[in-house]
Amino acid sequence: MSVDEHEIGTVLVALADPTRRELLDALAEEGQASATTLAGRLPVSRQAVVKHLRVLEEAGLVRYGRLGREVLYEVRPAPLDSSARWLAERAAAWDRRLEAIKRVAENPPARPSDKPADHEH
Amino acid sequence: MSVDEHEIGTVLVALADPTRRELLDALAEEGQASATTLAGRLPVSRQAVVKHLRVLEEAGLVRYGRLGREVLYEVRPAPLDSSARWLAERAAAWDRRLEAIKRVAENPPARPSDKPADHEH
DNA sequence: CATTGGTGCAACCGCAGAGTTGCATTTCCC
DNA sequence: GGGAAATGCAACTCTGCGGTTGCACCAATG
After folding, report:
1. Has residue B97 been placed in a domain?
2. Which nucleotides in chain D lie less than 7 Å from some protein C-beta?
3. Which of B16, B33, B102, B113 would staple A12 via disulfide (CB 3.0–4.6 Å)?
4. Structural domain containing residue B98
């Protein structure tokens, strides 16, 4: 309801990369930092960091501002928050759905197919 | 704190793909369904669906069980839920961090660097 | 003004993953 | 038994993306 699929998509893609998550951790710790600084903390080149920061920025997870000759980035919690809500909503919806199905399966009608066996591996 | 980085990683990767999200939606709606059935609802081949289901299963987002000659899948909300908590925790941590930095920047000490200008684009 | 530290830009590489097709195999059902 | 429906397996293609390197460009500073 609250946020749209597409925005969530960009956030999920942004967060799916482990380097990007490390980058966010570093940024959150530093408060604010430049691409060069961050590249010093991770085992990748500055250019790689720049590219990552670009996708993070497009997901709204970081903000940047120029200060003299350097560009400082800082973290933005908002999209993370709305994504969390999106996930929680979805989990709740699934739960409701499963509950409804279980009720139907156990009580009134004939069962056309059984529940899948619990197949942990 | 609650769940480990690696598990979250697999969930995020699984959710990052739009086809996989559609697949989960379809599955949640159907209650349970086979790869063949699902392939009928999405614009991809059955084999593609099978591969997606494999990564979803490894992320714990679906469960499957054999019923005669067909394999039925159903959705599992738990990992979604813990991921949501993970994101929310992180967002909160960032918020605290930003607050702390703002306090430091405004009050006691000299400011070594200014806040980045608000650069929405 | 020349140097130096920080960015921006572009080309390039390698690989994983999303997708396909074809075929073998199992199981249901007449 | 013998199709027909569903799954399993394998090989293959192709695009995207994470990463690098090299160089040009700016701006602070002695």
Report:
1. yes
2. 5-11, 17-22, 26-28
3. B16
4. 1-107
Q: Decide if A117 is inside a domain.
A: no
State residue B3's pLDDT score: 78
pLDDT for res A113: 44
Number of Cβ pairs < 8 A linking chain A and chain B: 136
In a domain, B115, yes or no: no
A window 51-80: Cβ near strand C (< 7 A): 69-72
CATH number of the structural domain spanning residue B1: 1.10.10.10
In a domain, A112, yes or no: no
Measured from Cα to the C1' atom, the residue closest to C20 is B45
What is the total count of domains within chain A?
Answer: 1
- Quickly list H helices, A1-121: 5-16, 18-30, 35-41, 46-58, 78-106
Tens digit of pLDDT per residue, chain A (121 long)? Answer: 567 889 999 999 999 999 999 999 999 999 999 999 999 999 999 999 999 999 999 999 999 999 999 999 999 999 999 999 999 999 999 999 999 988 887 766 544 444 455 554 4
The CA distance from A107 to the nearest CA of chain B, in Å, is 16
Asked if A65 lies within 8 A of B95 by C-beta distance, the reply is no
Phi first, then psi, for residue A43 (nearest 5°) are -85, 45
